[in-house]
Amino acid sequence: MNEQDCAPLIKAANALDEELIPSLMERGMPVDARNKTGWTPLMCVANKGHLELVRYFVDRGADINARNVNGWTSLMWAALKGYSQIVRYLAEHGGDLDVRGDDGNPPIHLAASSGHTEIVRFLVERGAAVDAQNKHGQVPLMVAARTGRLDVVNCLLELGAHVNATGTEGSPPLLLAAIGGHLAIVRTLIAHGANVNATNKTGRTPLMAAAKAGHLDIVQCLVEQGADLDVRNDYGKTARRLAAEDRHEHVIVFLQQRGASV
Fold first, then answer.
1. How many whole angstroms separate alpha carbon 148 and alpha carbon 222?
2. Running DSSP on this structure, what letter comes out for residue 106?
3. Which residues does 224 contact at the CB level (< 8 Å), separation at least 6?
4. Where are the domains of the chain?
5. CATH top-level class for 1-96?
6. Which residues of 148-184 are buried (b: 16+ CB within 10 A; e: fewer)?
7. Tell me, what's the pLDDT at 5?
8. For residue 3, what pLDDT band results from cuts at 50, 70 and 90?
9. Tens digits of residue pLDDT in 234-246
10. Do residues 106 and 132 touch, judged by C-beta distance below 8 A?
11. What is the C-alpha separation between 95 and 65, in angstroms, rounded?
12. With a threshold of 0.70, does the pTM exceed it?
């Protein structure tokens, strides 16, 4: 069947129409019918979180690892949306846990960035690498720290994630949390042994990142934990200089009081 012939089944799946779907299947619609963007009925119902319809299509031979034009599978959509039961079901029926779409993110990164702790835990316990890198060289802990997902950060650390991991991207989780202004995550990472003076590829430290972003509470926390006030990045700039460039007076005053050099 061509794309137009398959359209009714895709439309019914998107609408989660439990009466029309079986009727169309009985008329000979292929279980892996696709629309112009490569979506299959299974992808549609997984994306909408309908476990029973997911089971229905899988029971009838749907390709669990089919990809749309962006390289995404049904399991990836379920991981992003937080449908833990669907992720579990698809994984138990052969879903690829390390599949990557065109954006280079495996399911664990999608779940981590969206704050779905239960799915992150399940994926790791099922065999997904806790320190897997996406195509940008980021590990799940970096993604969770950057997006402010404290529960996921705690989960990943509990599961053995490397607290000072940089991947090929080069920015440790602490620096990413500092940029984002996520104080609770900064404290958690430090409590688990994060290096407060770790740098990225341009010599930027967490203190520099927080100072430039104007996050006084994080600047104070890092200084209290022994962050170097006077270290310079590869461009010769200190944290105080970076704060001055963006006119964060409250940060400048604090660093000045602590004796930081320009």
1. 17
2. -
3. none
4. 1-96
5. mainly alpha
6. bbbebbbbbbebebbbebbbebebbbbbbbbbbbbbe
7. 54
8. low
9. 999 999 999 999 9
10. yes
11. 6
12. yes
